[in-house]
Amino acid sequence: MQRVKLRLYFVGFILTCSLFAINLNSVNAESNSNDEFYLLDEQGQILNIDEFEYITGVSSHEVPLFSYRIEGYDSIGNYFFGTAHSSMSESLIQIGQEDLWQWKIPVSFSGDCSCKIHIYQLDYNSEILEEETLMMWLKSDDDVEIQWAYPIIHQSFSEKGTWTPGGPSLHFSSDLDLYADVYYPSENQAMNESIEMDISANIAEVAEVSETGSNFNSQFILIEQTELDTRHYKLHFSMSLENYSEGAYALDFNSDKYSRWNVGYFFEIDKTTPIPIIEANDFVYESLEWVYVNATNSFDPASSLDIFHQKWWEELPTIENVSFEWIIEDPDGTISVPNENMIVSPTQLRFLPITNGEYIFTLIVTDNAGNKNQTSQSINVENVIPVSLISDSNNELIDNPIFNYNRTDAEKLVFCADLSTDSTNEIADLQFGWYLDGVLYSSSNVTEINVADLGSSIELELIVKDSDGASDNISITLNQIDSLMGESQKLNSNNNFFNGLNLVLLTAFICTIILFFIKKKSNEVNPLPKWSEHNKKQ
């Protein structure tokens, strides 16, 4: 019988919520997630009936239409669920420069009551925009003590969310954690109230979701009570779900204290872990350009309740709220979380690869039930080797390995290294070294060389080094053209001198030989006969 009751209750609840969800979805298709709606009246008040005239609050909707419904117990313990009353706000006052309006609606009630007053703000189509509940006690006589008053218990979903279509569901994996607020009519009652450390409850699988629809009667749930304010306490119900399988469940308390106010919960046990997926390049080069790390394809597999939602509301599937947590390990081992400038969205990061080495990105994904899963992605940032380039004083590239110049044309030679390249993150930090025949001459990006310091031919070498220690070099030969021509002319002059000297010596040698022969001939005996006419004395 209990199972049939829960089944009918659950089906009725689903149908009601589905109609509500369809209306709410059509009205709030473009609603702002930052909408605000809260009451200015204090919770847990004790008022005389004649003091109960208005309820005030604040809303981000500039709409004056409201309705309210009162439920509770009268002074003899009879439960009632009143009809809804329409009410027009008597004023809408904008608060400061914010898009918030303070509203004030008239209300009426007669008699004694331990009350829950449900307030709804409506749009112009009478659809619900916002809702809130006010807990209070109303009495008809100042002199009457409210011995009849019950503590008022109201489910609180602030820690885990409410189970309503379009909103976050109550999901759990290994431990059940439920919350409620309890208000006591007096401090004495709050102090004297016996706090049960554990209470019994009936937990039933929802047959429409589960194949078995099993009941788990008299399950004990641990309860903790924390005082938040005078006569206001927070209740925390907890229980291990180790022996429960995945599925949707209904929980009802057996104790009158809780069942009196229909404190019950529908929740899902989801033990399916989400799947984190990181997409990024395995390596990139150093630069000042953003590198993106993407996790948008991470997902939470459909649970049994998700499938059930899709069965009932084909146009309104349940969307799991999955949280993303990022952890980054830098090449030096430093572990940190991304700063605001790195977060593009919860599922996407970006970072500047300005230091070479291995970066490890760890993604931790948590679903509504508390199931966690994680994965990591390594990205290696590789250093870009600088490239040495030499240019002249006009920053024109010198691509010839021999640089000719005239010594008489200039006193200095100017060379520049500004055309040298490296990654954008290191180009401004390059170090330069200019060497003449292996000896360091200067260490700036521009060097001026005194021509007087140069020989006729000398090697100029440029070495460029980045902040990671990588380097590159290039060499050119500096040749003095006019120096070479002077040496050539001197050599020609010397050659002419020696050629003339050789000619003189050769002439002198020939003349000597001739005189030698003449002298030798004059000393010989006359070979002619005396009677020869050529031998006559003169």
Strand content: 35-45%
Fraction of helical residues = 10-25%
Q: Low-confidence stretches at least 5 residues in length (pLDDT < 50)? A: 1-33, 158-168, 313-319, 534-538
Coarse shape: rod-shaped
Structural class: alpha+beta
Query: Major sheet: order of its strands?
Result: 11-13-16-15-14-17-18-12
- Count of DSSP strands: 33
Largest sheet: 8 strands, mixed
Integer tally of domains: 3
Mean pLDDT: 79
Structure description:
The protein folds into 3 domains: 2-269, no CATH class; 283-296 and 313-382, Sandwich (Immunoglobulin-like), CATH 2.60.40; 384-507, Immunoglobulins (Immunoglobulin-like), CATH 2.60.40. Strands 11-13-16-15-14-17-18-12 form an 8-stranded mixed beta sheet. Strands 2, 4, 5, 6, 9 and 10 form a 6-stranded mixed beta sheet that branches. The chain has helices spanning 2-27, 187-192, 256-259, 304-312, 481-522, and strands at residues 37-39, 45-48, 54-59, 65-73, 79-81, 85-88, 92-94, 101-106, 113-122, 128-139, 152-156, 171-172, 175-183, 198-205, 215-229, 232-240, 247-253, 264-269, 283-285, 291-294, 323-329, 335-336, 343-345, 348-351, 357-366, 372-382, 402-405, 412-416, 431-436, 439-442, 446-450, 457-465, 471-480. The protein contains 5 helices and 33 strands. By secondary structure, the chain is of the alpha+beta class.
